[in-house]
Write the structure tokens for this entry.
Amino acid sequence: MSDTKPKRINLALQGGGAHGAFTWGVLDALLEDGRLDFDGFSGTSAGAMNAAAFAVGWEHGGAASARERLENLWRKVSEAGRPLNAWLFGWAAAGAGMQRQTEWSPGYLAFDILSRFFSPYQLNPFNFHPLRKIVDDGIDFAALRQCRRTKLFVSATAVRTGKIRVFETKEVTTDVLLASACLPYLFHAVEIGGEAYWDGGYMGNPAIFPLIYGCDAKDVVIVQVNPINRPDVPTNARDILDRVTEISFNSSLMREMRAIAFVGRMVEEHKLDSDRYKRLNIHFIESETEIAPLGASSKLNTDWKFLCELRDRGRETAKRWLAAHYGQIGKESSVDIRARFL
């Protein structure tokens, strides 16, 4: 840990089911490094759950508490997911970690077919939600509402209007986190204040604008778990649908990146008032080489060994990123937004 003053950043965390354990590893490494301070957190789905656990721990107990709460959350995910894991993948495949991912296991194929012909309202008429107990037990909402120094923003998509809804720190509840993670082919829409919500990834994965308007830090570190680039064109039905999902869950982020690049260029060219418009430094910690080879079904694999391997890959990725780009924090973006998104 450096003796210099920690650099203050915002974190933007994508959703991606069990792949959110990669983000857990990234956050664990950032906390362990000790050279960063954290202003705001914007998260969607699994990213929102990571952000909530992180924010509570960071506010009330510092790095050690945040790391402990993140591990506790993912242990609960693994424990609650054991019955589903056994059916979808089989015990042997689930226990094999990242070396074996049974994309076409009988359980997964049966689940995939059922979800195409029957809605969750038909398959789950009593609206049992396996994530509810995980969130209730894994997130201290009373402590979250007492946060003063850190800010949390959680995105969900309004079903009827298609608009993004960003819930702020004191509004975040179990239902808000479930709404942010509500894939419509798996779960009933989550009702909050008379409005029905689906997964926030459709409209903000994650949303960057709350960090622009609601936080002081000018550096945004985006932890991305949904690959933007793929080397091959998918040719079978399952891979095509998976790729469509990846593109749709990255589209809102790409739009915001283009807008940020445009405003940044206008400020540089003195066409916009630099006192009124904030010029952001954007950084990406991404998983394209780490997670891209995994099948989409692995987003449902909550086996502890698999989650820990994802965590370890996230830790190593974050360490490499810090070694390469820590010096740019507070000074400039470490990614060329225009080249990447325009």
Q: What stands out?
A: Confidence is low (pLDDT under 50) at residues 91-95. The longest strand covers residues 36-43.
